[in-house]
Description:
With 121 residues, the protein is α+β, with helices and mostly antiparallel strands. 26% of the residues lie in helices and 28% in strands. The protein has helices at 3-8, 19-27, 38-53; strands at residues 60-68, 75-88, 93-96, 102-103, 107-111. A hairpin with a 6-residue loop joins strand 1 (60-68) and strand 2 (75-88). The chain is elongated and about 85 Å long. The termini are far apart. The relative contact order is 0.18.
Amino acid sequence: xxxxxxxxxxxxxxxxxxxxxxxxxxxxxxxxxxxxxxxxxxxxxxxxxxxxxxxxxxxxxxxxxxxxxxxxxxxxxxxxxxxxxxxxxxxxxxxxxxxxxxxxxxxxxxxxxxxxxxxxx
Length: 121
């Protein structure tokens, strides 16, 4: 028996290949998307309407929105400040400059200088 074959018999045995990765994936925390109260949803809808009125100006907007996780239930919230380039009426999606499209039903907060004169009721 060669030295290599002899050494191989003492190599660690990994009977549960991928088990560690599965445990890490299970332990990874995600947030849950929550239902926005109707009053706040109405405010967001008014802000979206104002934004769409000024879409030709490509205004800057700060969005906080939910991104679903690809591998498990839940996801995470992220905030970005970017210029709005267009709105897709069919999918109700805002397209930001150099960023992924954001569906309006996943937006939980929206800020912009456009809303400075808007008084939330």
